[in-house]
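User: I'm putting together a teaching handout on how multi-component assemblies are represented. Below are the sequence lines for each component of a complex, exactly as they appear in our records. Could you produce the 3D structure of the whole assembly as structure tokens, so the students can see both representations side by side? Please keep the chain order the same as the input.
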Amino acid sequence: MSSISIATASEVFDLLRDDLALVEKEFSRQSESPVQVVTDIANYLMSGGGKRIRPMLLLLGARSLGCKTDARIRMGAVVEMLHTATLVHDDIIDEASTRRGRPSSNTTWGNSKCVLAGDWLYMEAFQTALNERNFRVLDLLISLTQQMVEGELLQMEKLGHLINEEEYFDLIYRKTACLFKVSMQLGAAISAGNTGNSADTISATPGEPLTAEEQSLGEYGRNLGLAFQIIDDMLDLTANDNVLGKPAASDLREGKATLAVIHALERGTGADREAIRTVLADRSFEHVTHQQILEILLRHGSLAYAMDTACAYAEAARQSIADLPDGEYKRALLWVPGFVTSRDR
Amino acid sequence: MSSISIATASEVFDLLRDDLALVEKEFSRQSESPVQVVTDIANYLMSGGGKRIRPMLLLLGARSLGCKTDARIRMGAVVEMLHTATLVHDDIIDEASTRRGRPSSNTTWGNSKCVLAGDWLYMEAFQTALNERNFRVLDLLISLTQQMVEGELLQMEKLGHLINEEEYFDLIYRKTACLFKVSMQLGAAISAGNTGNSADTISATPGEPLTAEEQSLGEYGRNLGLAFQIIDDMLDLTANDNVLGKPAASDLREGKATLAVIHALERGTGADREAIRTVLADRSFEHVTHQQILEILLRHGSLAYAMDTACAYAEAARQSIADLPDGEYKRALLWVPGFVTSRDR
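Assistant: Of course. Below is the structure of the complete assembly, with chains in the same order as your input.
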């Protein structure tokens, strides 16, 4: 097996099938709450056809470093649960009526229950993580969650306004790449405990330097997450309602400028800029149509630019793990970036 | 100084003045967020005239066991911050327009920002606690938060319905007494770290038995919290709008049956029961007036019953710490229950 060979999709799924099934079971166990509505909301979101990419990353990260304990299953469920908690609160914030083609949780259960169910899911994720008795794991999770929440607040402040690329990358880092990065680092953190080095990990002081493995797996996760979100934002602009299960161009309808739009804004004519500005301010296609916006993006090569950028981050992700020991898990990690950039939903 | 002597209010405030001032400062430091709106909401709620009873309990618990480190200041701010986080999310749930006589946070900032600001405050509290590197502290905080959130969800399910005393006590335990109890236990947990026994505390395995101090301080907090909330609920029934800074009998207006009301329901005539049932179902005094309800409660001695029950819990709180070593902090702890039961707002 050569160090630069890349696994196929079926190899990756064979490799992770058993672990992912255990993660599903563990997630169901964790989300069993003494209060029925919490269990209902968690199961509803979990059955909504998510890609389980975060647990997948954690499993691959941990396995690539030789992790053999059940911690990877528990923590795989934890990252999916954290992700689910953010979705529950996001549904309140976005006032979205649908998610992945079904009624959103707030439409079904109302804001009040969703606030509390989201809180409960956060706490359950922390509770499970706390039982690992590993401070590094907790450091990663708590600071992650705070960064994600700050990102949502920053995004709210920027709705309807023009932002530049730097602001865009900060937002998508917080929204997506940060959890991808931490999923990978958690894989490393729980594996360090397997290698006879557990005392160091468990009593880690805050701000301690990362190990080389944590560093490169974290870099991989960050790059992959950026690629993932750029693609997500592109699909939002270009796919039609039926494919994504939400209205086309819902970001623009919410006043959010994403990479292709920012690219066009910086290169467009006065009229182009004005058209985009109008949609963002209106938060609707009342005065400028979706088709007009797509025409502007195509004319300036903005969609191609976003695609190229995503592919560059995907390649950077592959480069990040160049020094990782060869093996089937590294081959699987090399496959993921291509999967992320070639998806159509 | 006799073991049964009780401090005066001014003695207690003298005793805690410096510590409480440091807690205020620490709270301000903790609530400084890179996102301005979080800082604004935290400061707004903090300046709303809260009684700081939770930090006070933590300080007294820790000091009574000889704690001399700054951990008590940090953790004092943490329990107030957790309390503040619950208030921010409660404001969304209750859809209250006022809190303590001022516009509520959701009225001022909107639901979306309040969901996220509450999340941020929870995470900041955990982050600060995590830096103590004490698993016992984290066990207490995370399981507390989950119980509180479950309590809010249970309460929502019971709105507009008749509940019995057992359900009432479960709800007020989760809503108030649980955080009082944990504030006291945290005082003990951070003090254990001072007594040369830190390794045990820090590597505490989940579910480890409590020390005798944690047990009795926790019992004190639980009893005091129940007394506190029974009084709060009584004041809600009897005080007028100007005193509490919210509409009179707002619990009934929200469909919440509290102790005096439950007492009257169990002893009242068919007509009395019907009147109470109507208000709870209507969530308003449209068909039955506030005055009519008060008349029912007075006729059955229900307010006196609630007051007696609160006083019994206050006395139980004092009994809980009988075995604590004598000293000024124990005297102060003996003062608090009387303060809680005699307040009028």
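A couple of points students might notice: Chain B touches chain A at residues 33-35, 37-38, 89, 92-93, 111-113, 115-120, 122-124, 126-127, 130-131, 133, 135, 138-139, 142-143, 145-146, 149-150, 152-154, 156-157, 202-203, 205-206 (CB under 8 Å). The domain at 9-195+209-342 of chain B is CATH 1.10.600.10 (Farnesyl Diphosphate Synthase).
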